[in-house]
Amino acid sequence: MRLMVNAMLAGALVLCAGSARANRPDAGKFPNLVKSWESIQQAKDHVKRAEEAHRARGGLGGHGATAVQMINAAETEIDQAVMWAETHRKPGPPGVVTPKPPLTARPDDAKYPNLGDARLQIEWAIRHIEDAMQFHAPTGTLGGHGERAVESLRGALREINEAERWADAHR
After folding, report:
1. CA 7 – CA 166 distance, rounded (Å)
2. Rounded mean pLDDT of the chain?
3. What is the pLDDT of residue 12?
4. Between vectors from CA 97 to CA 96 and to CA 103, what angle results, nearest 5°?
5. Average pLDDT, stretch 34-56?
6. Do residues 33 and 79 touch, judged by C-beta distance below 8 A?
């Protein structure tokens, strides 16, 4: 009986953890992570639209799909950063986020607008994650999840660049 209860509790925890994944963070507690989450959603949509636009020419050589996988990995890291910050918060005021210049699209993004828009959204997501790390530094970090999210998003940027090269070679 006790084993059965433990198994049911473990199953409930797995279901709860699975349903919590990819939810939008609380804007009141994590404004920068919300902005990064929103940018990530837009980036995924742009990559998927780019794949659809290039489907007639053979897609993007698998680079679009790999970019989406890396974006999904960053999204998971953001979810874990929220959980870490919730459970490891220290008392005290949050940090001050240093203002940064605005991001703009690259001139050559007009050639493949969906990939250019995806790149810009990923760059915004990175900026917001870095701001979140700065904001949460005095009251506890994001447990390394912010750094891993940025790393995944930089990988997605590399894949988008490769997708553009592939599209150029297969016009």
Report:
1. 49
2. 86
3. 45
4. 170
5. 95
6. no
Overall pTM surpassing 0.90 (yes/no)? no
State mean pLDDT over 146-167: 96
Are 130 and 61 in contact, with CB atoms under 8 Å apart? no
SS3 letters for the chain? CHHHHHHHHHHHHHHHHHHHCCCCCCCCCCHHHHHHHHHHHHHHHHHHHHHHHCHHHCCCCCHHHHHHHHHHHHHHHHHHHHHHHHHCCCCCCCCCCCCCCCCCCCHHHHCCHHHHHHHHHHHHHHHHHHHHHHHHCCCCCCCCHHHHHHHHHHHHHHHHHHHHHHHHHCC
| Alpha carbon distance, N-terminus to C-terminus of the chain | 65
Q: What pLDDT does residue 60 have?
A: 94
Q: Are 147 and 81 in contact (CB under 8 A)?
A: no
CA-nearest of 68, 74, 72, 86 to 130 is 74
pLDDT at 11 over 80: no
The whole-number pLDDT of residue 22 equals 58
Question: What type of residue sits at position 143?
Answer: G
* 156 vs 48: CA distance, rounded Å: 13
